[in-house]
From TrEMBL:
It comes from Methylibium petroleiphilum (strain ATCC BAA-1232 / LMG 22953 / PM1). The keyword Nuclease does not apply. Its main location: membrane. Belongs to the autoinducer-2 exporter (AI-2E) (TC 2.A.86) family. This is Putative permease transmembrane transport protein. Keywords: Membrane, Transmembrane, Transmembrane helix. It is a multi-pass membrane protein. GO terms for cellular component: membrane.
Amino acid sequence: MTLTAAQKQSLAWLVIGAALALALWLLGPVLTPFVIAAVLGYALNPLVDGLTRRRVPRPLAALLVEVLALLVLLAVLLLIVPIFVKELPVLRDQIPELLTRLDRWLQPTLARFGVDVSLDVASIKAFILGHVGDNTESWIATALDSLRIGGSFMLGLLGGAVLLPLVLYYVLVDWPQIVARVQALVPPRRRPGFDSFMGDCDRMLGQYLRGQLLVMGILAAFYSIGLALFGFDLALPVGVFTGVAVFIPYVGFGLGLALALLVGLLQFGGLYGIVAVAVVYGLGQVVESFYLTPRLVGERIGLHPITVIFALLAFGQLFGFIGVLVALPVSAVGVVAFQRLKALYLSSPLYQG
């Protein structure tokens, strides 16, 4: 069977795509800092362009934007640290008492239905007292031993931490040239269609990211203020963590909710903390679902939360951590491609008969 020119071109693009996917799979650990730098470069490039339009030299603008991004990341990490520093000793002291209360409530409740179950509170207390101690060094040593972290892994981790800022800086400085070189690889006769396709992908992904960042910021402030009004000592770190985590639909909210419930139980030791968290997070979910996400992100983007979750899980399973990084950009490209294929199908003789 003789292939037509269009079929040969399609086959060539499929081979190129398969080769790229294979390279991602085989070279994942090596490519990780470069892919992270590319994703961050795409997200931070508008800030660099904004500074260059104000006559700031691009190398200086790239340096300023990168330093600002690192400071924001450091600030978020410093907000989360107090949760662990303060709550671990409280966790050690209060969880046994909470388990005793749970056992006292659980036994008579289940007994009404003919179920005779009781918690082995003594064994659980012994486990907690033995494993949730105040010795941070023993925690770190145990974690490193259980993860089997060797010298080569640590060396690679440190190398990536040093390499990433350097690669990100050059990506931000050379972003226009990188885009131009990629465009130059496209055949001239295909350039209009390619530019239109990539423009649609850029608008979709950019609008999604900008809208999602606004939602994250508003929710971080909402949860922090709401928990503070109910008297939570760790309202700010818990609220900021929840706001940042909602970037992953449903899963992030669930993690923030679980953390807030844990903090509420440990601080108040009763029903008050649970009710406070239910009120704040219930209102937050309603505001996000019915106002913030439709208004700031918009259904017209096409990246449904279920699509985002599936893409993160699927790419993470196939390519590991590097797959999680490229899941969102590839999903945006896939949505645009699907929309164009759908338009072609609806205008084709096959559909119209």
